[in-house]
Design goal:
This protein is an alpha/beta fold and 195 residues long. It contains 8 helices and 5 strands. The chain has helices at 8-11, 25-38, 49-56, 68-71, 73-85, 100-106, 111-117, 129-164; strands at residues 18-21, 43-45, 62-65, 91-96, 121-123. Strands 2-3-4-1-5 form a 5-stranded parallel sheet, covered by helices on one side. The protein is elongated and about 120 Å long.
Length: 195
């Protein structure tokens, strides 16, 4: 099957839900995590059918299903209804452990769900894609480490500035004492009574 539709680099950073198949579960999860980072949201991973309905109620975010085949056809129907009916919905990353076409042929992947997402598929077995992703993820990890180090440095600088402003650590300077001003008037003796 020749796929037309979204390219992998478009799918990772747009709101389209998709099927990701092939590769390892960890590679599929890493791809979903990258998608979640591109929206600056947490990744919600669903491994059991009982947790699916609640996860799909989100208005945004990224919901990752490591292997939709393991959830069963009824749960796949929930995914399909979410995609068809919910105007505001999360990006749903539907994982399949082997090839999506093979799961479809075996009847373990719903045909209507596959049809709904057939324009948005990431095949991790595609030549060169896994190496490209590993390089991209390594670069992103370096960038995240640099950002984290910069954030720690800024936090440390702010902590040091706050520490310096504490009352016990501030050195106070007072104005120089003034010399007494001499008075030209004579004061009345203490024992004298006013007239």
């Amino acid at each position: 099957m020749t796929l037309s539709g979204y390219r992998e680099e478009e799918l990772v950073c747009n709101r389209a839900s998709l099927i990701i198949h092939g590769g390892t579960e960890e590679e599929r999860r890493s791809w979903a995590q990258e998608a979640a980072r591109s929206f600056d949201v947490e990744l919600v991973e669903v491994r059991q059918a009982a947790d699916l309905a609640n996860a799909l109620r989100q208005r945004n975010g990224v919901v990752f299903i490591p292997d939709a085949v393991k959830l069963g056809r009824e749960a796949q129907g929930l995914i399909l209804r979410c995609l068809q009916m919910q105007e505001e919905r999360p990006k749903v990353v539907v994982g399949v452990s082997g090839a999506a076409d093979a799961a479809l042929a075996r009847g373990t992947l719903r045909e209507d769900l596959h049809y709904r997402l057939h324009q948005a598929q990431v095949d991790l077995q595609k030549e060169g894609l896994r190496d490209l992703l590993r390089r991209r993820w390594a670069l992103q990890a370096e960038q995240l480490a640099v950002k984290a180090a910069a954030a720690r440095a800024a936090e440390e600088k702010a902590r040091a500035a706050a520490e310096a402003r504490r009352p016990g650590t501030v050195t106070r300077t007072f104005p120089k004492a003034r010399k007494p001003v001499s008075s030209t008037r004579k004061s009345a003796p203490r024992n004298a009574s006013p007239r």
